[in-house]
Request: fold
Amino acid sequence: MLPAFIFCLLFITYVYALYPLALYLFAKHKTIVAPTARYVGDVTIVMVVCNEAESVARKIKNLQKLNFNGGDIKIIVVDDASDDETLKILSDFPGVTVLNSKVRRGKASGLNIAMKVVNTELVMFVDCRQTLELDVLMYLTSWFVGNPKMGAVSGELMFTAKGSNDFSSGMDGYWRYEKFIRKAEACIASVPGVTGALYVLKSSLYEELPGNTLLDDVQIPMVASKKGYRVGFDERAIAWDIPSVCAAKERSRKIRTLSGNYQLLFRFPEWIMPKGHPMWWQFFSHKIARLLAPLFAMASFVLAGVMCSQGSLWALWYLVIFTMALMIAPLSFRFSFVNKIPLTKLLASFITLNWFCILALVNYFSVASSGTWKR
Reply:
């Protein structure tokens, strides 16, 4: 009983503390100098949209203003059977190639459609919602100059202060923790995933995605890495987004993302084996082990309960502390003062995201995995 309990605690500690610590130690004496070379050649920007009438014009104007003097910028937008004014708005931009899907198939299928007509060496994938800083294309393409083994480079997602609240600031703290891990992974080798809102890929590495793919921004770079190419991260290239201001909205996003991790695990189980993928350690520790951590936490609670019934005093204390920690998340929703304390605010977001991992597991097995749009 005790060995199993200790194993559960060690696993949770590894996921959230020892793995980041190992990354820190490995990356501590390594420095990646951001390139400044100018990429010469045309670049294609690909975006898949569905019912984005409120933001698509702003996004196209943002893309047309990007700084780039290495060649032409080609913009391809795939409309996934929008039933609002998206197509009509896109018709106001004659320089944009619009591919219209008559049947709604999801983002992955939209990417497949776009990539069939891409004829440039590099392609930049973006989402509609975020606003890009104007130098992102220059920064991301510079990594491919004189570096034939560079497969993909991701930009950084940042959240604006506009519309933020205590919940969003807690999530922002968790996001900073996430970005530290990505940066360290990029420093020592490659990142097992990119920011879907902003990344550049060597187009020859793209492989057609199954239509129900949930995490194209993980599968695409992992496939590129499997072929021997590097996946990088450039914190200079920034996409600005509006943070989630309530748990319900964040829940929808995270459950879809985490369900996508389950999908990748069952689609490519060999990726978590030492010889199954060059990034197996990062993929398992960053993507898969996090899915399992809340299950190990629940197991530790059950084991502590059994030991407590057998008279273990320290197990009783563990149960009390565990329960008190769990209560922080619901209390933060009910009482705003809980979110005024930095530690409890971060802990609340941490517990909430782990709860989403459990919900994602239920969602994956109870609902057919679909790549169609969720809002």
